[in-house]
Structure formats: structure tokens, C-alpha cells
């Protein structure tokens, strides 16, 4: 069944009371793919980690367990989600282990080569100009750093039929991998995760040492 546009808009940028409900639902329904993204990141204790589209903050809080002496930052453009994340993880925020920031991922407010690991899950659908966002992700990644991008691809027919194309830009996995190459990422791999009712694709890439 095709989702109404107002629900799809909440998926893109949750707001208000409905947005707070969406935050809780998303945390539960996307836990498996978010956990898989963390596995693919190969987190180390001292890593500086950036999550693009951090939403509810649950995934970044889990990352804090692995990056136990590192620094973690999550950005999102939904004030509702950031308030939820900051309340939910207020102890980690108070300890300055995690920072949540209201930002846009096509203009990241960080110096070049700031992070060891950068990841985003279920965000690329909402990027009208995905190359701008991916280029920024590479810019802030340290040489030798690792990038993971998780998404449901156009090959997932159920996803394509359910979510309105006016809001969700659903792309084939080969196209997303090529966008990562165009953004300057190297050593690109594709991994799939098959769940009961959906298919996930993950682009894994690096910024090689010495690469401009």
C-alpha cells in the first residue's frame, strides 16, 4: 500500500507530535540495518565518528560503546529529532561523549579530515543533489578513513511501490556506488542485507592515504 505524502514527509523530516512518534517507530524498525552499518564501520576505541542524519540518536549511542575513548557527532536537519536524541541520550551529551547538531549535510561545518568514520543510513532518498552531500562526507573524512552508506535500493520493488517518488528519490545500488566514485571515494564495495520484508544495500568506501 502506497504511503500518504504527509507520512512520507514525516519520514524525511519528522516534526511535532507525530514526529516524536516517528522517532520511536524508526528507532525500532531500522535497528537491524543500523547495527549492520556499525559492523561495517569497524569502529576503533579512539575513532572520531560522524553520523549524517542521526535522527533518534540510538545508533550513535551504540557507536559510543565501541568508540569508547573517541568523539561522536550526529547531525540532522529535524529539530524534533535532535531534541528527542538529546533527551534520550542526555547522559552521553552531558559527558561530552556525543554532540547533536542541527546542520545540513551538503554544507558540513567541520574542517577537512575531521573524522575517522562517517556513516549515513536511510538518508540518500532525501538528497536532491546527492553528489553535494557525498563530496562533503569525503571532505571531512580523514585519509584512511571509512565511509558507510546504507539505503533501500530501487531493486527493492516493495520499497519503490510503497514510498511516493515526489519525496523519496529511490536509486539503483549501482547508481549510488557510481555517485560515491564521482564524489572521490575509493576502494568502493557493495554489501547487501536481506531482512524479512526489505532489502538493504550498503556502499563501503574509503579515502585513501595521500589522496587529494
Share of residues in strands: 15-25%
Number of domains: 1
Q: State the share of residues found in helices, binned by percent.
A: 25-40%
Tell me about the largest β-sheet: 7 strands, mixed
Structural class based on helices, strands and sheet pairing:
alpha/beta
Distance between the termini: 46 Å
Q: Note the run of SSEs as H and E.
A: HHHEHEHHEEHEHHEE
Oligomer: single chain
* Beta-strand segment tally: 7
What integer value in Å does the Rg equal?
Answer: 16 Å
Count of DSSP H/I helices: 9
Average residue-wise pLDDT: 90
Explain what this protein looks like in three dimensions.
The protein is α/β, with parallel strands linked by helices and 212 residues long. It has a single domain (5-206), classed as Rossmann fold. Helix content is 39%, strand content 24%. The protein contains 9 helices and 7 strands. It has helices spanning 5-12, 16-29, 31-41, 58-66, 79-88, 90-94, 130-139, 157-162, 173-182, and strands spanning 48-52, 71-76, 98-102, 115-121, 141-151, 186-194, 199-206. Strands 3-2-1-4-5-7-6 form a 7-stranded mixed beta sheet, sandwiched between helices. Strand 1 (48-52), helix 4 (58-66) and strand 2 form a beta-alpha-beta unit. Helix 3 runs parallel beside helix 4 (58-66). The radius of gyration is 16 Å and the shape is globular. 41% of the residues are buried.
